[in-house]
Structures are given as structure tokens and as C-alpha cells.
Amino acid sequence: xxILGCLLMLVIVIGIHGCKGDTDKEGSLTLHFKGTYNGQPxxxxxxxxxxxxxxxxxxxxxxxxxDLVLLDQANTVNLxxxxxxxxxxxxxxxxxxxxxxxxxxxxxxEYSGISFGIxxxxxxxxxxxxxxxxxxxxxxxxxxxxTWNSFIFMKTEGRIDTIGNGxxxxxxxxxxxxxxxxxxMQRTIPLSIEEGKNKDLxxxxxxxxxxxxxxxxxxxxNHNPKDSIQIRMLxxxxxxxxxxxx
Amino acid sequence: xxFFRKIPGTYALILIVCLGFSQCHDTIDVPGIKxxxxxxxxxxxxxxxxxxxxxxPALEQPADNLMTQEGIRLGRRLFFDPILSVDSxxxxxxxxxxxxSFTDNLPMSEGVAGKTIRSSMNLLNVGLEYNGLFWDxxxxxxxxxxxxxxxxxxxxxxTWENVEMKLRRHPEYPAEFRKAFGIENSSFISRDLVTKxxxxxxxTIISGGKTRYDRFQRGEIxxxxxxxxxYLMFFNTDPSLPDAQCGHCHAAPLFGTTDxxxxxxxxxxxxxxxxxxxxxxITGKLGDNGKFKTPTLRNLVFTAPYMHDGSFKTIAxxxxxxxxxxxxxxxxxxxxxxxHLSESQKADVIAFIMTLTDSxxxxxxxxxxxx
Lengths: 246, 371
What we know:
The structure holds 2 protein chains of 2 kinds. Chain A is of the alpha+beta class. Helix content of chain A is about 20%, strand content about 45%. By secondary structure, chain B is mostly helical. Chain B has 13 helices and 4 strands. The longest helix of chain B has 15 residues. At the A-B interface, strand 4, strand 8, strand 9 and strand 10 of A face loops of B.
């Protein structure tokens, strides 16, 4: 019995060691999506200067991030098809921490960059919320606009004080959507995924730049097709507003 | 083996404890009430296949509570039975009457100890809501939702222990639970099975495909000019018409989203000042204060008065509230502004909302009181 017991213990120890070894041979990556305003963490309901004398308070910021891929010289590693990133944080500390998405079991190596889409790619955008189970980020009908036959890719909502007297009387809401406003963001950045370690990568979106050139007072919303110039401008601004920081 | 020989007392103790646990279930020791052996009653449940309208989301059932004909029958009976309340006066159906599209037409519902703090919610398509139930979203599932009213001192004022006891000694319920869930003994009747049965029934309350809007969507009918104008403004489809801002929260096909909004019912200079914090009281998140679940607009005509506080008696009053922008607070929905809709445009939007009416559900025999 003693020999049998020892053998059993040996098998268990080897098994545990083997599992640990597999984990150690992989690394992980955590993406921290952060909303900022003029480079500072962006908390909801805090007052931000806009075109003088106007001031803003944001109330809701979210976006779909899709087709997340780690780039390599030889091939790519798919991270996720679709994520709903909510940047509506109540305080600056939470905003500074950002919306984190962790990807485990990544082959350790030097990657050359990352690629992702802002919005819902056309192959998914032909579907509707009811086509997805409730656990899927695309299942909520609040993120679909029937008139466009499209998911709402990005929501930027708040209230504006148009005369600078501290009364935020007008709501503004910019929602992007439809296939032609889907944007792929590819960034070349050396990313070293190491065995048994996590790599952190910040992806910041500066909403001062996102709203650059948009006359909120005149066009506070964009759901009407006549306002599409506003959201085209907003989507163009994304390229400059988005930064990757290691 | 040496280990076993050295401390037999320890293992004997563990064995006793394990045997003790294996004998445990939710039984009650009530003098004069005998457990009833139910094994002579056949347990042959028949799976229920829900008829979900085209274009609706799938009905997701918990793996441990799949719908059966027997479970639904039991759930319906429990839904209408005041046995769940302390004085046998209030049932689920007291506040959720089928004839009123599962509301009660009161600003605040009446319980055993007076008025509740919020208005009763329409249960149409409630099984398709997956992001919290109650106005403040505090219940994650129908099963968890059904637990609360029984022990709420205003609503039913009962204890689950008493409800279990009443059901176990009831002349008919033990057999019903046996048929629905296969219990071997009446002592196995529990709050868990009660809420599962009620949830199964509630998941059958589906309404869709029969309204004028649904038929319009299928291309079977045309809407009237007024209804169609309302449709265009509801979904902001025509640039020449104002946006009535309805569709942002009341999204098709259910015309209620699974989200929560501050719809301008409460004035507050800051995020702390809401008399009823709603979702914020549950999540603890400041930005959620004053937010409430978006109810469905299907069968709205039957569910007055409106809002979580029952403050509007008519749909016209609701329309007036939304088109005027509501009361101010920092997290008021960005879509609530003075909309500058004319009286005829407001009437058009209401006419469109009326196309969401399905009166057949009110008289559906499957949803009526079985007593």
C-alpha cells in the first residue's frame, strides 16, 4: 500500500507540474480602453470646456470594438470578434483605470502591432440584436437603430451649456452606424508577450478631439439622416483621437 | 490505510456529518402534518415549445427550469392563488391582471399592508427581458424576482416557511408539484420550486405578431396617414419631420429595451438628490441614480397610469412630459429636450403607439384565472 500511495502522489505531483508548465508557456494581454478629454481622464458629469463660452458634461460613452487581432510578421492571433466597451465612469480614478479586457493563453513572442475595428463589421452588421443570445454584446436592442438597419457603433452623449452660465440645458447625442462608417484601426507598436506574464496596453480616446469641429449647439443630435455630416466628421476625428500607450 | 487505523474517531465523525447532510432538505416539523408519499403519482412531464413571433429574440430558459406543460399549469395556478400572501387576499394576479395587460391600473399597487412604492409593471414578453427585472433591475431572473413579493411586508407580508407549509398540507398542490417536478414527497415542496413554476408560466406571456404594427412590418396592411407620420417621428426616419425621440429607448421589436434611463421625472441639482434612486440604489453607482427600466409600449393603452411612479394618467400626459423635456438633473437622458412637436404631431405619435395594441392577449384562455 505504501508503494501504491507513493506512486499515486507522484502522478498527482507530475500532473500538477505539467499543468503549471503549460500555463507558464503562455502569456496574456490586457487592453485598457480609456476615455480622456484634453489628455485627462474623463469622468461623466464633470464639466469640460468646449468652444468658448460653451461647456460640456458627458453622460454616456460607449463603442463596439471588433475583430481584435494581434499582428505578427508571419501571421495573426485573433483576440475577439466583438466587445462592447463602456467608458461611462462616474469618477476620474475609475476613468483612469479604464475598461479592461484581458486575453489569456497567448503565444509568447514579439508582436508588431494590433488591429481592431471601431463599430460592427459588415458581416455582423447584417444581423439584428434578436439574432444573438443575451450573453452576446450585440443582443441589446438599445444599440441597434432600425431606420439605419445597423447597429449603433459608438455613442457619445452628454449635455451642453451653450452660454457658459452653468446650465446644461441641451442634451447632445452622436451615434455612429452603417457599414460605411465602420473604421479599422491598425497600429504598429512592438508588443512583447512573455511567458507567464501579463502585458498591459492602454488605448485612449480623447473626446475633445472626437468632437473637434462639430457644432453641438446647432446640431446636437445625429439620428436624423440630414445630420450625417456631423457623424462623418466624428468618425474622421477618431483616427487622431485614438492613441496606444504601453 | 495506516491513516484510517490511527484516527477512526475522526472518520466516524465525518461519516455521521455526511449522513446528516444527506438527510437534509427543506422539511418542516409541524405537529399533525404528515409528509405525503407521492411516488404513486406518475411523473411524465411534457416539454413546452414556446411560440415566439418572428423577429423576436429567442426565449432563453434556465437549464434547471425548462418549461413543461405541467410546470406551466402549476405556475399559472400559483400566480392566481392568494395562498402566497399572509391573509390570503393578494396573489401575483392582484397587481398583474390579464385584463389590464398584466398591470392593475393603479398608480401604486395595493398589497396586504397598503400601497407599494412603485407602479405595477406590464408582464408582456417579460420572459424575453435579460438585463434585470423590477423597475430598478434588482432581480437577475424571473425565478429570483418571484422570491421577493411574498416576503415584502407591504405586498404579501408572508414568510416562505409558511407558504411552503401551506402548500405541503394543501389537498391538491403536492400532486401538482409531483407532476411538474417529480418530487417524491410533499416535504420537498420549496420556494425554489414555487418560483420556478411561476416563472415557467410568466415565460408563456408572449405578445407579438398580431398588432397593426406587426402586420404593417410584414407588409400585410398600410398604416393610416396619422399612424405612419407617428412611425416616422417615433424612429426619426423622415428628415422633414421632428424626431420624437421614442425609439432610442423603446426599440423594436419589443418596444422596451433592457436598459435603464433617467427619463426626467425627478428634479435634482446633483446625482445624490433623487427621492427614488432606482437602479443606483442597486448598483451603488452614482450615475445610475434616478434611472429606471424602460417598459414595453406594447399594449400601452391598457396599462395606465404610466411611469414607475404612476404619475401620468393618460398617454397624452406622457407625451407632453417627453416633448417638453422633463425635469432637470445631471444624468437626464440626452434625448430629453424640448422637441417642438405640434399638437397634431403629438397625436400622430400616439396614433402610432396605438398600433402596438394586442387585445387578444387579454382574453387568452391560457392566461386566465384557473380558479
